[in-house]
Amino acid sequence: YWTMNGTNISNSNAGNVGIGTTNPTNKLSINGSILNFNSTVYTRHYRDVAFYEFNNTTVTGTMKITMPKLWSSTMLSITIKGYDYSSIGAWEVVIGAYNYSGASWVNATAEIKGKAPFNSVRLASDGTKNVILLGSTSTTWNYPKIIVTDVITGYSSIDDWGDGWSITPITDETGIINSITPTVPYYL
Fold first, then answer.
1. Residue 48 neighbours by CB under 8 Å, 6+ apart
2. Which of 81, 151, 172, 174 has the most CB within a 10 Å radius?
3. How many Cα atoms within 13 Å fall on the side-chain side of residue 89?
4. Which residue, 90, 97, 95, is CA-closest to 146?
5. CA 179 to CA 24: how far, in whole Å?
6. Closest alpha carbon to 83 in 147, 171, 168, 165
7. Contact of 33 with 149, CB cutoff 8 Å
8. Within 10 A of 87 (CB to CB), how many other CB atoms are there?
């Protein structure tokens, strides 16, 4: 193992290199999110910040995607990709919004590409963190695979968006506040 700036970087005899993993399975294996940025531009691009899969047939509920911050005055562009094992198949959600420090969402947009198992996207708070809500408590998901693939941050509080994300289905939306539902155009 090599150590670089306190980060474990591993090596295997097969020529694979891993960052954050002791058993790299590809030429480059990274366990965790990736941050791309240019020091002269005041934006950050985080990739692959959250994953969810359920391999036991169906799960019912709102998919709650919890962000790492609460009301940070950050302009956000978020891409979520998923797959539902049914006649639905692959889908993608692209969200744009400004999470204003005054506890509100401003200039929010959302679009759904493909045929998703849900037809609403909501931006809200659970009182502790900002959240994205996909579907409702009665949405049925079949072997869902969900990844928050891209998060682009701008304006203020642009750092520290790479860790602290989570995705979980919920059947009780008690405590969800400051919710807005952008009008969703569909693209097939």
1. 33, 34, 147, 148, 149
2. 151
3. 6
4. 90
5. 41
6. 147
7. no
8. 7
User: Considering only CA atoms, which of 149, 139, 118, 137 is closest in space to residue 176?
Assistant: 137
Three-class SS state of 28 = strand
How many CA atoms lie less than 13 Å away from 70 in the CB half-sphere? 9
Query: What pLDDT, in 10s, does the model give residues 140-162?
Result: 999 999 999 999 999 988 999 99
CA pair distance 30, 1, nearest whole angstrom: 15
Count CB-CB contacts under 10 A for residue 47. Answer: 17
pTM: 0.84
For the segment 98-142, what is each residue's pLDDT rounded down to a tens digit? Answer: 999 889 999 999 999 998 999 999 999 999 999 999 999 999 999
